[in-house]
Design a protein that fits this description.
Layout lengths: L19 E2 L4 E4 L8 H7 L1 E4 L5 E10 L4 E6 L23 E6 L8 E15 L8 H6 L15 E8 L10 E3 L5 E9 L2 E6 H12 L11 E7 L4 E8 L2 H5 L7 E5 L2 E2 L3 H9 L4 E5 L2 E5 L12
Antiparallel strand pairs: 1-2, 2-5, 3-4, 4-5, 6-7, 6-9, 7-8, 8-11, 9-10, 10-11, 12-13, 13-14, 14-15, 14-16, 16-17
Length: 303
């Protein structure tokens, strides 16, 4: 329910983090900001303060813990937002590119701005699989945004590493390029650097959550593991579970060489190939073969 702004006092509020307008009444932010807070969010709602000083109320429309993306929705009847939505960039930033970050911190009530450089646009950080929503459960849909935060995590992901200081409360802040487009969203701190989620990933997950779906990474119906040597790494099929993979003739022990135009050398490169929804190329006993599989995907294709 929407809290009554006229009845609130500063002591009633608990600062959570930053967000930015990504649609007419939608805001993007980080999912981890709401871990352990869902009961309070559901019973009391969310209060937003725009940089211009305007206060508005919102609700948590959906969240995906696996990619640390959440979407908020401004309550109807609360007036128009004082600014228009920001525009997502469709490219990754370049190493050494200058960027700017605008957001809030827990130490003040004013928007702060920072500038710095992209030290690594594709920094790897391994994640892990966790139990939670199954594909069958996901197909049935969910009404509780908190449940969508308990889905299986991507086995690995790449962040945009930023050579600039990040302060507590800046998670969910937009990262701008020189054209004023959002090129990433700040998610966490790594040593003296900030780590941000690429804008294209944020945009696709937001589209999915706004449509009322939980987010699941694309699936091939295969259980795989990293194998090979340091100089010749491979990804090997450990088990075949999906009907499509079985029908395509994939077998245990096959090596996944590429998905579409993406060479597969580890779980991360396999995940990136799946995101492009291409066909896979595998190797069995030294013989290469093309395999066409229909991926199980929960998000609409990017236009």
């Amino acid at each position: 329910s929407a809290p009554a702004l006229e009845d609130l006092q500063p002591k009633d509020l608990v600062f959570v983090g930053s967000a930015f307008l990504c649609g007419e009444r939608s805001l993007a932010t980080c999912a981890h900001l709401f871990e352990g807070r869902w009961p309070a969010v559901r019973s009391r709602g969310l209060v937003l303060r725009f940089g211009e000083g305007l206060w508005m109320t919102a609700r948590l429309q959906g969240a995906a813990k696996s990619v640390d993306v959440a979407v908020l929705r401004l309550h109807a009847g609360g007036g128009e937002s004082p600014v228009g939505p920001l525009v997502f960039s469709e490219r990754l930033p370049r190493q050494g590119e200058r960027v700017a970050v605008c957001g809030m911190t827990q130490f003040g009530t004013e928007v702060i701005g920072l500038s710095g450089l992209v030290s690594q646009p594709r920094m790897r950080q391994k994640g892990s699989w966790c139990s939670g929503i199954t594909p069958a459960q996901h197909a049935g849909g969910f009404r509780n945004p908190w449940l969508r935060m308990k889905g299986p995590q991507d086995p690995a992901t790449r962040f945009v590493q930023l050579a600039l200081p990040t302060l507590p409360g800046m998670s969910g802040s937009p990262v701008f390029d020189a054209d004023g487009k959002v090129i990433a969203m700040v998610a966490k701190k790594f040593e003296e650097h900030g780590l941000a989620i690429p804008a294209d990933r944020v945009r696709i997950v937001i589209q999915c959550l706004e449509a009322g779906h939980g987010w699941l990474p694309p699936l091939l119906g295969l259980e795989v593991q990293e194998s090979g040597t340091l100089l010749d790494p491979t990804v090997v099929v450990k088990a075949v579970r999906g009907r499509g993979a079985i029908a395509a003739g994939v077998q245990v022990g096959d090596e996944i060489l590429a998905i579409g135009q993406t060479p597969v050398v580890d779980l991360l490169s396999m995940r990136e190939g799946l995101s492009a929804l291409g066909d896979s190329r595998s190797r069995r006993a030294g013989r290469c073969m093309e395999v066409s599989l229909e991926t199980e995907r929960s998000t609409p294709k990017a236009e």
